[in-house]
Amino acid sequence: MLEAYDNLYWTRLVAIEDFEAGRDRKHGLGRDIIDELQALELVEPDEESESWEALFDPSTFSTANQPLTLDRFRLPEAELKSWAERVVRIRADIEVRVKEIAVLEQDVDRHDENLPAVPTTRSRKG
């Protein structure tokens, strides 16, 4: 059964505190599907039936929001402008932070160059 999913992968959301730089971020879909199906087989059908209700039912949404057109979900101009201004401020803040980090990294590199050489088993500059 797994052969059908050999080339299907997905990524997983990971909390920042669980992030590891070298960890593979590509996961095979087949193994996760099998694990999920096996876990579902262990659940009793009558156990906590309320927890099995869908949080979002696309059929109910579609029926309640007919016809589905962009005009029904279009934001007013004032709200679009407000969101655009927020995005511009956020991007400007990100740019400032990136520049600050770059300056700090340059300072660290310059500081490292001024330190006396210490013999180690691993060279930092390769």
Descriptive account of the structure:
Among the domains are: 1-42, no CATH class; 74-115. With 126 residues, it is mainly α. The model has no long low-confidence stretch (mean pLDDT 76). It has helices at residues 29-41, 58-64, 70-73, 77-114; strands at 9-10, 27-28. Strands 1-2 form a two-stranded antiparallel ribbon. It is 49% helix and 3% strand.
Major sheet: arrangement of strands? 1-2
Can you write the helix and strand succession as a string? EEHHHH
Tell me the major beta sheet: 2 strands, antiparallel
Q: Tell me what portion of residues adopts beta-strand conformation.
A: under 5%
Question: Got a strand count?
Answer: 2
End-to-end distance = 46 Å
Summarize the model shown.
The protein is mainly alpha-helical and 126 residues long. The protein contains 4 helices and 2 strands.
